[in-house]
Amino acid sequence: MANQLIIVESPAKANTIKKFLGGSTKVVASMGHIRDLPKSKLGVDVNNNFEPEYINIRGKGDLIKSLKKEASSAKKVYLATDPDREGEAIAWHLAHILGIDETQDVRVTFNEITKGAVQEAIKKPRKIDMNLTDAQQARRVLDRIVGYKISPVLWKKVRRGLSAGRVQSVAVKLIVDREEEIENFIPEEYWNIYATMLDEKSKKTFEAKFYGKNNKKLELHKKEEVDEILEKINEATYTVEEVKRGEKKRTPAPPFTTSTMQQEASRKLGFTLKKTMSVAQGLYEGVKIPEKGTVGLITYMRTDSTRISEVARAAAKKEILKTYGEEYYDNRYYKTKQDAQDAHEAIRPTYIDINPEDIKASLTNDQYKLYKLIYNRFIASQMSQAVYDTLSVTIDANTYTFKANGQNLKFKGFMVLYIEGQDEKEEEENTKIPDLQEKQTVIKQKLDAKQSFTEPPARYTEASLVKALEEKGIGRPSTYSPTITTILERRYIEKIQKQLAPTELGRIVNKLLIENFADVINVEFTANMEDEFDKIAEGKEEWKKVIGEFYAPFAKVVEKVEKELEHVELVEEVSDVPCEKCGRMMVIKYGKYGKFLACPGYPECKNAKPLVETIDVPCPKCGAKVQVRKTKRKRNYYICENNPKSCDYISWNKPKPGEKWNPEEKVELEEKPKTTTKKKTSTTKKKV
Length: 688
What we know:
four-stranded antiparallel beta sheet; 27 strands; 33% helix; alpha+beta
């Protein structure tokens, strides 16, 4: 008989904890949630104060029997699921299934899986926090109500099987809005004038940029304006009117939160959000290291706090002094944003003496990369500022003003170890200009006028979308990754060279939701609900009351929309392709992977096939139609409709009228195109 039974969520976490607790303590895993709302129905009794109808998750029967057996034979059971709202709810469900009194001290949590943290947690068990549990229940119930009430509208108007989500739909809306902003963007012309200058004293050249007239900023939008200025300054004397010398300091970034870790791993490592969280989970739960056993390498990876413990702060100081010296250390505190839950520390290494390089052989390549990123970010956060000498120069040329700015890094500080990435292009560390003096003249060597056009905003990447969601208060650390993963899997959005763009299906669904449920599918409502969940977690709101206040007006909107759509049938676009089985003109439908052709005679005729896009230029080799297809990486290529039967034309480049194809210019496709029939065909790799 085990004196103590500890239930965690994953086997990896269980294995790491076992070595810290000897004797007759047993550690087992629940494998995540064991109870949830049923998939086959709403599962929320809206007529009985929104009581959830939880059921045991299908496929977990044997696991539940095993957990019950272990719990019944243990003198004491501790529920050590993850230290967040989701983990608290899992602990509550476990207590219910195992017949454990939730008012007893059965809940233990630890922010890091170290011997000290685990042993200390076992000494101080607490009751299950029903405020945290209710906050999770509120989110689950609200999302279920929104999804199950709105999704049927999509089934009637678009196609069956589609679904809507409260947070996911807002994320899709952001991406659609950005795409429309890009499409509607009208470029504006603007000009810059650059002057290459020579300082005769030092014999050094530098570049100055046109600023304006009489030191007042002037924007240039027409070539005529530029030509007039060039004429007036071509023979002018260039005099240094003002020299400003100064010092600029750059402060290190704070330790990682979930959001900043996801953004930085995307920018620097090319990781998707899903991959980042999976790798981080493994580092948190434990990695086997020679002579140390299984070690949890980082603190809990779902947090929005930048706070760190004093023990960690002291360990960082010791490491910095030993490796870099006293001038590189700064005892630095970071202010956590106002609406952060702050339940956990920032993401940091649990053992500062375990350097990434020392354990590289014990980690997978991805684990090493992410651990090094977390480790260096944390150490750098406690290091001194970088210091630059700056020089700003104003130059006069016949009343027209040029400016030149330079900076020189004189002390690297934290930058000796780590520099935070940016979505935009990073500024140069050093931009040197000569040590000029006021009233001296400089020699103009060359004038360059450059025409440019304003550019539309960039599409979101996973990293920049997470940043936008966080800034707008949409979702929380645990929701960013599943939100973006879900809308990618539903094909509402797609990745094009790491950028997120809406699919046609995503645009249609977004338009329908905005037209009918504008009060629910919007940024303000979604952010406000996050605030309500926070209040529930703090014990300031009752969760069923919050759901009730939302449901009454929402139900009326759903009823109104359902009535309006009762006799509405989806108007399907008719193609010019006849059904080869029955002769009807096939219609365009929307499936999981986008558009396809289907016979309108269903169910009598079940013929369906891919919708093939063609171009108005004939095949350069045989004159047949040329189809546009996509590789798995979403790259377009062009292929003859007779390929591979009687023509082998295939190209990355769109053919031009009258163009002849040179079969000598061949490169292999990066991947084989998908076959669209069940019959196997031998495909020869073509070259362009």
